[in-house]
Amino acid sequence: MADIVDQQTRSLMMSGIRGKNTKPELALRCALHFRGFRFRLHSGRVPGRPDLMLAKHHAVIFVHGCFWHRHEGCRYATSPSTRPEFWQAKFAATVARDSAVRRDLLESGWRVATVWECALRRSEKVSDAVNTLEEWLLGSGDRIEIGADA
């Protein structure tokens, strides 16, 4: 199946997709900051440059887009119909990298949270996700994953 736009237009569209300071990330940061949590953004001092690093709690938080990071079972983790081999390889590499980074962080003693984009799509969901994160940060678990059912 051919793309519905030309290569230049597609390239321009893809270059507009941000990796930092996305809407879900900003919503989570705002809510956590309001609750008194302080953090560093995209710290290069830990593997994977996590979206948030909370040194006081020895924890990092990744805000993952459901499409790019392949949130299993999520309705937003669709696959493009054009060039399926390319996309499958790209998604597989992203998932493998995420897994390796998570493993490295856990082995280094960091606590790791993954918050999926679908859990931050509406303000009441943001509140639920932050409640769960707050419990986890103040508790002792080494990892947590928060999706739309948070």
Could you report the average pLDDT, rounded to the nearest whole number?
90
CATH fold group: Endonuclease, Chain A
Helix content: 40-55%
Identify the CATH class: Alpha Beta
Report the CATH architecture. 3-Layer(aba) Sandwich
Strand order of the largest sheet: 1-2-3-4-5
What is the count of DSSP helices, taking H or I runs of 4+ residues? 5
The Cα radius of gyration reads 16 Å
What does the overall shape look like? globular
Number of DSSP strands?
A: 5
Distance between the termini: 37 Å
How many structural units, i.e. domains?
Answer: 1
| Relevant CATH superfamily | VSR Endonuclease
Please mark out the parts with pLDDT under 50 across 5 or more consecutive residues, or reply none.
Answer: none
Biggest sheet features:
5 strands, mixed
Question: What structural class do helix, strand and pairing data support?
Answer: alpha/beta
Q: Topology as H/E string? A: HHEEEHHEHE
Strand content: 5-15%
Keywords: DNA damage, DNA repair, Endonuclease, Hydrolase, Nuclease
Function: May nick specific sequences that contain T:G mispairs resulting from m5C-deamination.
Organism: Pseudotabrizicola sediminis
InterPro entries: DNA_mismatch_endonuc_vsr, Restrct_endonuc-II-like
Question: How is this structure best summarized?
Answer:
By secondary structure, this protein is an alpha/beta fold. Helices cover 43% and strands 14% of the residues. Helix 2 (23-34) crosses helix 5 (123-138).
